[in-house]
Amino acid sequence: MPDLKGKVAIVTGCASGIGAATVRRLRADGVEVLGTDVDAARGQALCDAAGARFAVQNVSDRALWPQIVAEAVAAFGRLDILVNNAGMVSGAGIGDHDDAAMFAAWDKVLAVNLTGTMAGCRAAIAAMRDNPGGAKGAIVNIASTTAITPLPTDVGYSASKAAVRALSKSVATWCAQAGLNIRCNTVIPGATHTGILDATEAQMPGFLAMVAKTSPLNRLADPSETAAAIAFLASDECPFMTGADMLVDGGALAIHPGF
Ligand SMILES: NC(=O)c1ccc[n+]([C@@H]2O[C@H](COP(=O)([O-])OP(=O)(O)OC[C@H]3O[C@@H](n4cnc5c(N)ncnc54)[C@H](O)[C@@H]3O)[C@@H](O)[C@H]2O)c1
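Structure tokens for the assembled complex are given below, as produced in the milestone run.
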């Protein structure tokens, strides 16, 4: 178990799936957690059950980010960890829909998945550099295997996740060159059994079974398996890891297509 006891974390998109599993995992590891989500009812219930604090947040609202970070610092005295997990799909391929619908979907998914992540990094670094005892922190951004093998059916999601991967590396190297002990890494999940996939299954019966086959393990990940990787990168177990990608995809990208 990575040693996380006494650290303070913000986890976005905490009401469901990987975010909910991450809140539970970090709480079990002794971390004080501020969970945030646009879904106030589910987010509050999840955090109450896990013994975490909750705040309503749309991550794409950049003006709100400094307030969210300030709330964590006011409540717990410092900020050690940010998990930029909140995300959404847009469900639009490049030639789908008319221009109005296409650009609305594109703008929204980029605002949440990419700008929300950037704004989170920026606000967190401002707090982490003022931590008692000196600048220190760990940021974990959540991308997707679609960053590497994009979906023809979702250009905005795929592009946003590829950009999150590059964003993490830029943040990591900026912090390193600035002499800040603030690491930034990317977790790249494959098909994980959460609300995002359940919503697609509802529209496309058989989808879950189909994506399970993308992994040689022939199953979906449980969100707790992704949360374990997030907890490791957030911990002090890996001080030389920054700007790195951690695949949690059941070997999906390790196998030659068709085998
Ligand atoms: N499930 C998968 O197979 C999979 C694979 C690769 C990457 N991911 C990524 O993992 C992350 C978590 O996804 P999940 O599978 O747990 O999905 P999920 O739908 O179960 O949970 C996403 C959470 O984010 C919240 N959210 C959405 N938009 C938000 C916003 N603007 N501000 C704040 N909160 C917002 C939702 O309310 C929800 O609680 C996402 O970034 C997703 O892209 C998931």
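The chain has one domain: 8-192+222-247. The longest strand covers residues 181-189. Further analysis is deferred to the final report.
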